[in-house]
Design goal:
elongated; 48 residues; mainly alpha; 0% strand; single chain
Amino acid sequence: MIEQLLKEISRVSEALLTDGTLQSERGNKAAGLRARKASLEASKNKKQ
């Protein structure tokens, strides 16, 4: 259970960092949307 949660947190964090960088450096709006989605997933995981 904990290992699965940690893997999910890691995956979401990597997605947030990658997409956030694309959005801020290149103005990629789709990447910004994915970054916001990853942020919401991270928030949901934090509450579990």
